[in-house]
Amino acid sequence: MEIEIFSDVVCPWCFIGKRRLDRALAAPGGSDEAPLQGEVSLRWRPYQLYPNLPAQGVDRGEYLRRRYGEQADAGKIPQRIRQEAEAEGITLRFDRIRRTPNTLLAHQLLEFAYSAGLQHELSEALFLAYFCEGVDVGDRDALLEVAAAVGLDAGAAAEYLQQGTAVEEVRSQLTRAPEIGVSGVPGYYIANGFLLPGAQTSETMGQIIRRVRDRLQ
User: Fold this and answer.
1) DSSP for 62-77?
2) Is the peptide bond before 46 cis (omega within 30 degrees of 0)?
3) Which of 85, 112, 147, 211 matches a 20 to 30 Å C-alpha distance to 124?
């Protein structure tokens, strides 16, 4: 059973949701039922929160001031996001983030990682790089460093990112989200027919996934 994960690299709730999904899939069900991991395949799909940003991204502090005024604090983490992240073992460091990137290139790299069987691992690494280390995940060289760290061939990844077909594939996939009712992220499309929106608790995610599985049997 496939779960398509609609996400953007710069979405903190997507990072939280990723950790919760991992826990949901690793947890046993009732009556000593085996975890869902062996029954589920994961497919990350692109979504862009800020599709109109320039390719090189923008200075984050300046971007926030334009949106929210001079009082905007680029290092401030909304309390609920901070608490929910910490509950999943994530220490967010917004103070380290210098740029708000255009994530189109990062989504292309995630497509490359899918063909190598490392898409889920790369998603975690990109979230950590951006939200915990302040890495500019819109920068090609920075992305290739993250790719190499999870075991991807950086040379092959660089060659892939230079191909026009890579960006065409991502742009084609970006149209899929609204077609199936995804209007925000994260969104989880289960078994090509059941949409679970938002960063639900791991318990809720596990229950819904099992319910869908049982309906399909």
Assistant:
1) HHHHHHH-TT--TT--
2) no
3) 211
